[in-house]
Amino acid sequence: MATPRQTERFTSLRNLAAICGGLAGVGGITHGVGEVLQGSRSPDGIVFDSWAQGRIARNLGGEPAMTLVPNLLITGTLTILASLAVLLWAVAFVDGPHAGRGLVLLSVVMLLVGGGFGPPMLGMLAGLAAAGAHASRQRWTGPLAGPAGRLLASLWPGLFWLCVLDAALLVVGSLVVAGALDLAVPDLFVYSLFLVVVSMPLATLAGIAHNVRHAPGAANMPRLARPGRRRLPGVAR
Predict the structure, then answer these.
(1) Sign of torsion, CA 100 102 107 108?
(2) Whole-model pTM?
(3) Could you report the per-residue pLDDT of 63-83, keeping only the tens digit for each?
């Protein structure tokens, strides 16, 4: 059983970016496979269905995507490659100083070649979390020194798990529910996407607040001055 200290080490912005970025890559690969299976033909337009037949097409509305490439076989191949790049970057390079920018850039590429809409959005939000993991503590010490910072820091563990579970539902849950169980509940995953769009930026801010308040020397953080009566010189306390 994990100790509280081990759990606290796991709930980090670095891990949030790695998990959500990896899931974004898996979701993109799913779109790419559906596109490859449609063969060498032109899509119906810039926005099209990644899956034209089967349970995913029937239960998830075809997994819509967009592409600038006028061939579904090439689109699917590029989507799989871009998604693998997102997955690799999230797992192997999330500790680098440019981890956030790299994840955002690769997610944009995944969006433009057919990786759907949910996975690229999740990848961009993972990039935001990766950037937050490398945010300067000195820069954020002042803004997060007051009650708002304490509140955000206290919410961090719950927001971390909310984002992880929601991202897993969005990617893995959709495959299990729509593919394995053959259930048509597309609204569930639309709401799941909306939730991750709202919760990930908030979780990133909460993670920064947590890092600031638990950094070495955080006990000496400046406190906001309390309004009150000013003492005159020479007046005893």
Answers:
(1) positive
(2) 0.84
(3) 999 999 999 999 999 999 999
